[in-house]
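Minutes, project check-in
Item: structure for the 66-residue chain
Input as provided by the requester:
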Amino acid sequence: MDNIPDYTELHAMHEARQERMLRRVPKCDICGERILGDFFFNINNVYYCEDCINDYKVDTEDYMEG
C-alpha cells in the first residue's frame, strides 16, 4: 500500500493539473484576466472576455433618433 498517494500528494497533483490547464486558457487583451467563461471573442487574433467587449457595445437606436 506504499504506492497509494496520501491526500496532500493528491491535492498537489490536482493543483498542478489545474494550473497546467489554466495556462492554456487565453487572457483577455483588455483586462489581462484569464477567460474562464463558456466563450470569448477572437477578433483578428485579439482576445476579449465578455465583460470587456460589452464595454464597447452601442445601441443602434442611439444613432437612429432624430
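Outcome recorded: The radius of gyration is 20 Å.
No further action items on this chain.
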